[in-house]
Amino acid sequence: MMSSNLKEVARAMVAPDKGILAADESSGTIKSRFDGIGLPSTKENRRAYRHMLFTTEGMEQFISGVILYDETLRQNALDEAETPFPKLLSDKGVIPGIKVDAGIHDLAGFPGEKVTEGLDGLRERLQRYGQLGAAFAKWRAVITVGRGIPTDVCIDANAHALARYAALCQESGIVPIVEPEVLMDGDHTIYRCDEITGVALRRTFEALVEHEVVLEGIVLKPSMVISGSECPEQASVEEVARRTVNNFLRNVPREVPGIAFLSGGQSSEIATAHLNAMNALFNELPWELSFSYGRALQAAPLRAWGGDPANFESGQKAFYHRAMCNSAARTGQYSADMEIAA
Ligand code: 5MM
Questions:
Q1: For the chain, which domains are there?
Q2: What SS3 state is found at 219?
Q3: Which of 138, 140, 275 to mutate to test the pocket of ligand 1 (most atoms within 8 A of CB)?
Q4: Which residue CA neighbors atom 17 of ligand 1 most closely?
Q5: What is the pTM of this model?
Q6: 146-188 per-position pLDDT tens digit
Q7: Which residues line ligand 1 (CB under 6 A)?
Q8: What is the distance between the alpha carbons of residues 54 and 244, in angstroms, rounded to a whole number?
């Protein structure tokens, strides 16, 4: 039986006008982000960067929750009191969450395909994360599109892992973010992405139901239905919005409180425009349509900050601006003028 608290937290994560900041870069990923600004990926630099983001004044108007990495969940802010990051966020009304998967690995026997690992010992880790203040968790499954792939085996293996993870989270009183990402890498068309997204969503929800996961107590974090990044024919913003929402109307049960999209390598502005178009074109949807962006929220502030304490405020200003634009996109109120004015 699920505590009503899970439903409340899930609804709060997709509250109107708000979305989630994905700041759960693992060590390898944050290193490559810092490489881009020429900053060594030390523990203190990672702390300073997360401190800059999380202490942005007013970001709580637009950000409902933040996904943290294990190291960050245990780190303190750079204030005098050395406030633990989860407390700093909760004190602002922002829900702290934690990435619990152990990353993607080659799927044995299926070249080019991946499966996410991390189920061993997860029950114990979830209990500890709950004590440290995490109210929700995240697990990312990756589906690669290519010649002859994805296979049903890959889709099923990932759906099964997502369902086992989600059931363990709910058992521990933690809301699972269920993230089946169809990668946009490749030259596939939007039609192929549409087809694969449909299969991945159907298999994921079948597995969730088989594992008795209560759908009112999850948040879905999918990719959009979009042309492959190398596809010569790139679909328009409106086509992405229409195909994405229509696909989800066919495949996502109405019990799910909200869909918080990942940005998946889209530029910050395009990711915002896509979300905006979905919310502008469709009314009366069964679920909230929100964001849980990593790169699309962080690329601008990371560039503006550049690892230099002198740019602290510029970094915060850039983060505030992207969060505000995506908040506007939650109701279809975003416009390109908001970028020019920045
Ligand atoms: C913030 O990046 C997350 C962590 O990635 P790694 O485990 O590879 O270090 C990532 O899972 C992210 O939450 C999702 O991909 C969504 O982020 P984007 O940038 O696609 O919106």
A1: 2-341 (3.20.20.70)
A2: strand
A3: 140
A4: 294
A5: 0.98
A6: 999 999 999 999 999 999 999 999 999 999 999 999 999 999 9
A7: 22, 24-26, 29, 103, 140, 262-264, 293-296
A8: 31
